[in-house]
Design a protein that fits this description.
By secondary structure, this protein is mostly helical. The protein is built from twelve helices and no strands. Helix 1 runs parallel beside helix 11. The radius of gyration is 18 Å and the shape is globular.
């Protein structure tokens, strides 16, 4: 099924996004980086809309779909801001597993709000395995980059909550909307929100002192995000949310692999076992969902 392949591609690009973004926010403020990335994603998504020829259908979007697309965009913006703030102060191997806990809430919301009850018992078992895996991943070894106050943790939790709401709201919003167009509309909402926060906090002056190398990584992370979103929302529109979301969240495999290669962030034995639980839960969901 094509939507399964698109969900897998979404995971690959999302994994790359985390690494590229981490490289781009060593000196650059996370809010500024988020706002800059969103410009790239917006341009990327509208180019795809023009290529597939769905721009004219924007006039046919009903009020309900538009409202849910806007709400989804707001949830995405909030998730991004929390996520990249967490990445800026914490290790990838700490932040990503907490962020991916949104999988559990997304699956439960899809079951109870969207009525995706096919193979319900299997889905609940897979979700339980995911929960165990997330817990083990969170309770991992301390690193040299240890943050005793865990300032990254509330932001990572916020990212997970908003990300789970994003999936459900987007599913409702793109029922009768071409998925690429829906992504472009949502991205515009995120752009307005991200830059609103930059100006509200008076961080616009930091644009004058951007590190060129970090800006390049921010741009590349924007392209990776755009590709991930386009694949993800195609899968969401044409597939089963409670299956697509766990597959997409396995981008953690890509993130952890590259974090080891690039940042030398190693997993403890306990965290590795947690990762295996998450992988097994995801495979069960994908095969039986």
């Amino acid at each position: 099924m094509l939507w399964i392949i698109m969900a897998l591609l979404s995971a690959v690009f999302a994994g790359l996004t985390s690494i590229l973004a981490k490289c781009g926010i060593k000196k650059t403020d996370s809010d500024v980086a988020t706002a800059l990335r969103t410009i790239i994603v917006l341009v990327f998504s509208w180019i795809i809309v023009l290529i597939v020829g769905s721009a004219d259908t924007i006039y046919n979007i009903d009020t309900k779909s538009l409202i849910f697309l806007i709400l989804s965009g707001l949830a995405t913006g909030a998730s991004w801001i929390c996520y990249f703030k967490a990445l800026s102060v914490g290790d990838i191997n700490k932040v990503v597993p907490v962020d991916k806990s949104s999988t559990i809430l997304s699956v439960l919301l899809a079951i109870f709000l969207l009525g995706e009850t096919k193979n319900l018992l299997i889905k609940l078992i897979a979700t339980f395995l995911l929960a165990i895996g997330v817990f083990l991943m969170i309770e991992k070894k301390y690193t040299a980059h240890k943050d005793s106050k865990k300032t990254w943790f509330p932001y990572a939790i916020g990212s997970a909550i908003f990300a789970s709401l994003t999936s459900i709201l987007a599913k409702v919003g793109i029922n009768d909307v071409e998925s690429n167009l829906g992504t472009a509309i949502r991205t515009f909402v995120v752009l307005v929100m991200a830059w609103g926060i930059v100006f509200a906090k008076g961080k616009q002056n930091e644009l004058k002192i951007l590190d060129t190398k970090e800006l390049l990584f921010i741009v590349m992370s924007g392209f990776a995000t755009g590709a991930s979103w386009l694949c993800y929302y195609y899968a969401i529109q044409n597939g089963v949310v409670s299956v697509v979301v766990p597959i997409d969240k396995m981008s953690i495999l890509i993130s952890i692999l590259f974090s080891y290669v690039v940042f030398k962030e190693k997993l403890s034995q306990k965290a590795f076992i947690g990762l295996m639980f998450m992988l097994i839960g995801t495979l069960i969901m994908a095969i039986c969902g």
